[in-house]
Specification:
Belongs to the LTA synthase family. It is found in: Cell membrane. InterPro entries: Alkaline_phosphatase_core_sf, LtaS-like, OpgB/LTA_synthase_biosynth, Sulfatase_N. Pathway: Cell wall biogenesis; lipoteichoic acid biosynthesis. This is Sulfatase N-terminal domain-containing protein. Helices cover about 40% and strands about 10% of the residues. It has helices at about 1-10, 20-40, 45-70, 90-95, 105-120, 135-155, 160-170, 170-180, 195-200, 245-250, 270-280, 290, 300-305, 325-330, 340, 355-370, 405-430, 455-465, 470-475, 500-510, 575-595, and strands at about 220-225, 235-240, 240, 255-260, 310-315, 335, 345-350, 350, 375-380, 440-445, 475-485, 490, 495, 530, 540-545, 545-550, 560. Mean pLDDT is about 90; it is low at about 85-90. The protein is α/β, with parallel strands linked by helices and about 600 residues long. The strands form four sheets. Strands 1, 4, 5, 6, 9, 10, 11, 12 and 13 form a nine-stranded mixed sheet that branches. The chain has a four-stranded antiparallel sheet with strand order 14-15-16-17, covered by helices on one side. Strands 2-3 form a two-stranded antiparallel sheet. It is globular, with a radius of gyration of 26 Å. It has 21 helices and 17 strands. It folds into two domains: about 1-180, no CATH class; about 210-530, Alkaline Phosphatase, subunit A (3-Layer(aba) Sandwich). A hairpin with a 2-residue loop joins strand 7 and strand 8 (about 350).
Length: about 600
C-alpha cells in the first residue's frame, strides 16, 4: 500500500515531500486493516484482499480521473459510471500500462492462494488466518492511526483548492472527508436574486443604446457547437499546412473573440449546451443534465419561442447519453434530432461523422427557413472527440513525422477533418440562402488536450505550437465567432465565456432580457468581465479582463496568470473579485435549485 500511495501521488501532485505518502496514507490503511482484525474471525485473508482491492481501486480511479479532468475524483463521480462504457476509447487512451502495476500484488497473491487452496484437502488457506493478533495492539494502532488521520484532515478542511486540500490531507483522508463532511448547501432566498444584484457583482454597466442592438432582428439564429475546439487552432499552420482553413476564413469574415473560455464541468459537451442555452453556471460537483433536468429552466429556446421563433437542436449521438432527452425538455426545444434521425452510417465514437451530421441537417434547416417564422437551431459536432483516433481514411492532411502516433497529432487530424466538414456545411448554408438571413455563432464546447494527459513529448509539441509552455489559460481558451449580416469583420478583445452567448445573441436579435435572469453579459458592449470557473480548475478560480486566478488554501496564496503574454504578474486580480465570483456561483446554484419542477416530468 505504501508503493501504491507513492504511485498515486507521483501521478497527481508535483514535488512530493519524501515522507508525505507514508504519513498521510498509511494511517488510513491501518484503520481499514484494524477493522478487518476486529470484525473478521474467519476468512480474514480474503477480507484483507478485498480491502486492498477497494483502496487500490480508489487510487487507480484518482489517477485516471486526474489524467483527464485535472481534479481529484470523489463519490459524486459515481453518477458517471453509466457513461464509462460509452467513452471507453477515451479511458483507454489515458491508461499508461504501468498504472496497471498497482494491481499486481492482488493478482499474484490471489493466484497463489487459489492454487494453494486447490492443492490442499484442508479448508482453503485463503479462508484461514492462523495467527491471532492481540486486541490491545489492534486497539492501540487503531486509535493512533485515527488520531493521525484527524490531524491530517481537520486543519486543512478550509482549503478552497481541492488539489491542495487532497495533498494536505492525503488522498484517502480527502475521499473520506468529502463523504463525511457533505452537508446541505445553504441557498439564497430567490427573492434576493435579482438581475440588478447579479450585474453589480459582475461589474456590468447598463447602456442606454447598446451597440448592435437589433442589428439582426427577425433573422435566424444558428449556433454551431464544435467538439473539443481550442482557440490555438485559429490560423495555425504546421510546416506550412493550415489545420483549419475554413475556420480561418470564417474568422476573417466575422466578429472574432480570441479571449473566450469554456465554462463546463463533469458533463463536458452537455454542460456546454446547458450553459449556452441558460446563461447559468454549471453545478458544483455533477453534470447539469444530472442535476437540473427536472426544473422549468428559463432558456434561449423558450425566449425565442416567445418571439415567434421555431427551435430545434441536432446531435448524432443517442439522446439518452448524458440524459439529454430530459435536458432538452427542460430547455423547451420544439424538436430534437438524434441518432434515430441520422442512423448509424459512417459512425465514429458515438455516432455518424460530422459530414453526415451537416448533410442531413441542412435539408431540415431549409424546411425551417421556408416557414413563415424565423428559427433557432443548435448544431452539435462530435467527430473530433477525445481521444481523436478517427480512421485514417478521413484524413485530409499529412502531418510531419514528429506528430505521428501522438495525441496532439491525432487531435490535429481530427480537427482538420471537422473543419473540412464544417466548410461543406457553410457552403451549403450559403448556397441555400440561409447564411445571408442568419446570425451564425460558432464556439468550441471545451478543451480537447488536457495538459494532465499529455506526455513530455506531447507537451514539447504544444510548446512548439504556442511558443511557450502549455498552461491552464491555453487549455480552457476556446474560439467564439459571430457572423452577422451587414456587420464588418472585427477582432474583439473583450473577455467572454459560454455563459455570455445568450445575452449576446439576445442583443443582436433585439430581444430585451428585462425579465430574464442571466449570469452572462453581452460581450459586444461590455469590456470588463468576471467569469467564475469550476471543475477543470480549483473552486474559487475566476477570470477577469486581465488574468486567470487560481486559489491556494484561500485567496492570499493563490496564483495569478496574465491573459496577455506581456502582462504584469502583480495586481491583476483582487480579493473583492474573488469573493464576488464565489457569490455569483452561490446565486446561480440557489436560483436554479429553487426553480419550479417541470410539470411534464
Amino acid at each position: 500500500m505504501i508503493v501504491k500511495s507513492y504511485l498515486a501521488w507521483m501521478a497527481v501532485f508535483d514535488g512530493i515531500p519524501p515522507l508525505s505518502p507514508i504519513l498521510k496514507e498509511v494511517p488510513f490503511v491501518w484503520i481499514a486493516f484494524c477493522l478487518v482484525e476486529y470484525f473478521a474471525s474467519k476468512r480474514k485473508t480474503l477480507y484483507y484482499l478485498i480491502v486492498n482491492l477497494l483502496l487500490t481501486g480508489l487510487f487507480f480511479a484518482v489517477i485516471m480521473y486526474y489524467k483527464y479532468y485535472g481534479v481529484i475524483v470523489t463519490y459524486h463521480a459515481l453518477q458517471q459510471v453509466n457513461q464509462v462504457t460509452a467513452v471507453s476509447n477515451s479511458v483507454f487512451s489515458l491508461l499508461d500500462p504501468y498504472y496497471l502495476l498497482i494491481f499486481i500484488d492482488i493478482v499474484i497473491i490471489g493466484f497463489y492462494l487459489i492454487r494453494r487452496a486447490r492443492r490442499s484437502k484442508r479448508q482453503p488457506i485463503m479462508f484461514q488466518m492462523p495467527r491471532r493478533t492481540s486486541r490491545g495492539l489492534v486497539s492501540t494502532v487503531f486509535v493512533f492511526a485515527l488520531a493521525v488521520c484527524l490531524l491530517n484532515t481537520w486543519p486543512n478542511r478550509a482549503s478552497m483548492n481541492e488539489i491542495k486540500k487532497a495533498e494536505a490531507m492525503g488522498i484517502l483522508n480527502y475521499e473520506a472527508y468529502t463523504v463525511l463532511a457533505s452537508q446541505k448547501e445553504k441557498l439564497v432566498d430567490p427573492n434576493q436574486i435579482t438581475q440588478d444584484t447579479i450585474d453589480k457583482l459582475k461589474g456590468t454597466t447598463g447602456l442606454e443604446n447598446p451597440v448592435y442592438f437589433g442589428q439582426a432582428k427577425g433573422k435566424n439564429l444558428i449556433i454551431i457547437q464544435m467538439e473539443s475546439l481550442q482557440n490555438f487552432l485559429v490560423n495555425l499552420k504546421i510546416d506550412g499546412q493550415e489545420i483549419t482553413p475554413n475556420l480561418n476564413k470564417l474568422v476573417s469574415e466575422s466578429l472574432y473573440f480570441p479571449h473566450f473560455y469554456q465554462m463546463v464541468g463533469q458533463g463536458n459537451t452537455s454542460d456546454a449546451e446547458f450553459v449556452v442555452n441558460t446563461s447559468f453556471y454549471i453545478p458544483p460537483n455533477e453534470a447539469a443534465t444530472q442535476n437540473y433536468p427536472d426544473k422549468q429552466l428559463p432558456s434561449l429556446p423558450k425566449l425565442l419561442q416567445q418571439n415567434n421563433y421555431d427551435t430545434a437542436t441536432f446531435h448524432t449521438n443517442i439522446v439518452e447519453f448524458w440524459n439529454r432527452g430530459e435536458l432538452y425538455k427542460a430547455l423547451g426545444w420544439n424538436r430534437y434530432y438524434d441518432q434515430k434521425f441520422y442512423g448509424t452510417e459512417d459512425s465514429v465514437f458515438f455516432g455518424p461523422v460530422d459530414e453526415v451530421l451537416y448533410k442531413k441537417t441542412l435539408p431540415e434547416l431549409q424546411k425551417m427557413d421556408a416557414a413563415d417564422k424565423p428559427f433557432y437551431s443548435q448544431v452539435i459536432s462530435m467527430t473530433a472527440h477525445h481521444p481523436f483516433t478517427i480512421p485514417h481514411e478521413l484524413d485530409k492532411i499529412q502531418l510531419p513525422e514528429r506528430y505521428q502516433d501522438t495525441m496532439v497529432g491525432d487531435y490535429l487530424r481530427a480537427q482538420n477533418y471537422a473543419d473540412w466538414a464544417l466548410g461543406q456545411f457553410i457552403q451549403g448554408l450559403k448556397d441555400s440562402g440561409i447564411w445571408d438571413n442568419s446570425v451564425i455563432m460558432l464556439y468550441g464546447d471545451h478543451q480537447g488536450l488536457p495538459k494532465y494527459s499529455l506526455s513530455s513529448k506531447e507537451m514539447d509539441l504544444m510548446k512548439e505550437i504556442y511558443g511557450h509552455d502549455y498552461g491552464n489559460i491555453d487549455m480552457i481558451n476556446i474560439p467564439f465567432i459571430v457572423s452577422v449580416p451587414d456587420v464588418e469583420p472585427q477582432v474583439i478583445d473583450h473577455v467572454g465565456g459560454e455563459v455570455d452567448i445568450l445575452p449576446t445573441a439576445a442583443n443582436l436579435l433585439g430581444i430585451p432580457l428585462d425579465n430574464h435572469i442571466h449570469f452572462g453579459q453581452d460581450i459586444l458592449n461590455q469590456t470588463y468581465n468576471l467569469l467564475p470557473e469550476r471543475y477543470y480548475l480549483p473552486s474559487g478560480s475566476f477570470l477577469n479582463d486581465k488574468a486567470l486566478f487560481m486559489p491556494g488554501v484561500w485567496y492570499n496564496d493563490g496564483e495569478q496568470m496574465p491573459l496577455a503574454e506581456d502582462g504584469v504578474s502583480q495586481a491583476l486580480t483582487t480579493e473583492d473579485e474573488y469573493n464576488r465570483a464565489l457569490k455569483l456561483l452561490q446565486l446561480s446554484d440557489s436560483y436554479v435549485k429553487q426553480l419550479p419542477d417541470r410539470t411534464d416530468k
